[in-house]
Amino acid sequence: MEFWINFLWQGQDQTASPHMIMDINQPVPDFELPDIHGQLHRLSHYRGRVVIVNFWSCKCPHSERTDKAIIPMFAQWQEDVTMLSIASNRGENIQDIKKAAEARRLQTVLLDADCQAADLFEAQTTPHVFVIDREGILRYRGSVDDVTFRQRIPTRFFLNLAVESLLEGRFPELTESPAYGCTIIREI
Questions:
Q1: Is residue 4 part of a domain?
Q2: Which domain holds residue 40?
Q3: Of 24, 46, 132, 145, which residue is the least packed, with the fewest Cβ within 10 Å?
């Protein structure tokens, strides 16, 4: 499937440099990706809403675990929050992605076949979440929670804290955490 990503910064077309670093408290470049049904989604269309960009995998058990945690939270936020789950793994086919998205009740799953969005965000794992405020500013990046290899039960829900802060009109206290999950496979 062919598609493109357009990068825009403050209304002007720009070519994303492989060295562009997306900093906390800075505007997120616009991008456009198709969803699993072929409809194009542009980040700027969600301006005015809090956006969760969730690098996601249909095969990663960490993505599956966090999907189960995110969906109930997201149900409370639906009026003000959009979640864009992005499938960037080279080894995952559209049928498996659609099946997992439906089973996990994910509303918007975008396809990033060339890993251009993953590269733009410097996403390394699934899950790897980025929270963007209503004005298009990156306010949080990292893990959904504090689960690691050594700590199997979450005690802090970083994504929830970041989104709730923004919905209450505050900046998140924690703006970054290490992402934990399965490595995004860029080449096979």
A1: no
A2: 34-183
A3: 24
